Amino acid sequence: MFDVIIIGAGISGSSFAKKISKHAKALLIEARDGIDIRTNVFPEHNRLFLNENEINLEDRELFPCDHIKTLYFDKNDKGYINSEDFGEPLGKIVYTDRLIKKLLRIYEDNGGIVHFNEKVTKVTRFPDKIEVSTDKNETYSAKVLVLATGSRAFELQKSLGFEIPDSYLGIYTHLYGSEDQIKQNFDFDYMFHINPNISKDGPFFFNVGKDRVLTGFLGQKKETEAEIVEKLDRILKNYPYIQPNLKNLKWDKSSFITGKISKHPISKFSKDRTLILGEAAGLVTAFFYEGILSGLVSAETAANTLSPLFEKESAFNETELRTYDQGLRRTILDNYYKNGAACEYIFYDENPSIIRTIWEAYIKLIKENRKLRKQIWEAYRIPIEKYDTNRDRWAGEQLYKALPTLSKLTLTPKFLKALMRF
What's 2-35+96-165+262-333's CATH class? Predict the structure, then answer.
């Protein structure tokens, strides 16, 4: 009998496991046989959710370099957010796979147990426990279950009475080269690019590490895995605007990774003896598709909710676990996520000409408006609970003013609806 069973060893599951293992007997089950290699942006505001006595942000094995410069990229123009213009870095670049492994090592040092390559096939609730069955013909029991399965276990999630977030097919791969070559090819650490010919639903990106670079995009509705694999291969071979970035770098089409990416938070994150964390709950920003922050926030909020309950004879019912939902809404949903929802509505559209018009105006605005650049820099760094959506409203107003006159007439309703989302 465990105190808690965690399903999923992504950033939310591993972070929660590390935190809760100081207070409870825990089992973590992961269907995969290991941790996928990932290179991500780690904004400065994420720092608050790591214990720096345990995770050293100056450890170059985990965080290979500072995030100095972001490029917002259009085919005809570029807009940079250069932290050197304003002070401290935007944050770090993180080798996410190494960070997760570090979190799991600390978890195991605290007595936690990890089972890789074991898939949960059934979960049954009882009045006094929750029971988990796996494809290894094993059954485990616990007082409470934490789902941190990303977009990989929706049938299990539905069987427990939870909603399912909206899911899209995404793709990514790593480019490899020497540190010197990567430094020569990239004058930024992160690139965010919108092109409706690539996708009307999300960005194409580069996350630039020391000896590896992650690149990929969010697929469009109805695209198949085979179609987005071929599309990414064509982009890397032929898209003229990024060819200088690819000089002397290598990649392997057979190693392209596809999978679902979810967004739009579900309405409830807790039920009797069950919490749901991170991407499984739709806690991914709707515009940037960034999930590390939400994974860390949901892990900390869940640990803070459960830790005092383990110290008393709790029934772990929905009423007691409601504190978790309330904490998520206070920390990220009632402020930070409003920005993502408004940006998604403004920048993504079924009409390619609208996407191009708005994106071109935004790049031009970034180039010309120092106040906007500074506010974007600050958004990377300000503690997330202090996030001010009035700044986003101001940015939206400036973007509207920057539109061509004719476009203002046709896009006024779109911008008014976006402002109502704040």
Answer: alpha beta
